[in-house]
Specification:
The structure is a single chain. By secondary structure, the protein is an all-alpha fold. The protein has one domain. The protein is built from five helices and two strands. It has helices spanning 18-45, 64-87, 92-114, 119-138, 165-173, and strands spanning 14-15, 143-144. The protein is flat, with a radius of gyration of 25 Å. The termini are far apart.
């Protein structure tokens, strides 16, 4: 393939819509921040009717520390990430990755302690994964394949123990 001046060009993977990816990352991060802040405040203020039996077998005897962690660790990291994304700081993607991993870890720990009993756990796990995926897209790790790039094909494998696929097929057809 050549460009207008006749020079050879190489098709390289292209980032996935950087402006759209950045906008989606901002929306998801703001959503996660507001949800974690509201949830942490609601837990600490006793506005959520959470039964103490949910904490049986956990290291907590009340919802105070889970509320503090949700408010300050999850909500705080998501809020810092959202602000840095809006201000377009260079470290914003690092903060977004940390906040996304933090949210995923929170959901895993929560599920391990109280069990998987809420659609909200699925929702917030999905937003954490989406957050990390968008960070990878903006870093260029996840890219679109150029239209002229060949699709991936499996490599040719050597025969295993002297049996190629054709030999096995012939043997199975002829008994």
């Amino acid at each position: 393939m050549t460009n207008r001046s006749g020079c050879a060009t190489v098709d390289t993977p292209r980032p996935i819509a950087p402006r759209l990816s950045h906008g989606a990352l901002v929306v998801i991060t703001v959503f996660n921040a507001l949800s974690a802040l509201a949830g942490g405040i609601a837990i600490l203020a006793g506005l959520l009717p959470l039964p103490p039996s949910m904490l049986e077998g956990s290291p907590f005897d009340s919802f105070f520390w889970p509320g503090v962690i949700l408010l300050f660790v999850i909500g705080g990291s998501q809020t810092v990430s959202a602000l840095l994304l809006l201000w377009r700081w260079k470290s914003s993607l690092l903060w977004s990755a940390v906040a996304g991993f933090g949210l995923i870890i929170w959901i895993f720990v929560e599920t391990g302690i109280i069990g998987g009993s809420s659609w909200l756990q699925i929702l917030y796990f999905a937003t954490g994964v989406a957050q990390l995926t968008l960070v990878l897209a903006l870093l260029g790790v996840v890219t679109r394949r150029p239209p002229s790039a060949p699709a991936l094909t499996p490599p040719e494998l050597p025969p295993v123990f002297g049996n190629s696929v054709d030999e096995i097929r012939i043997r199975s057809e002829h008994g």
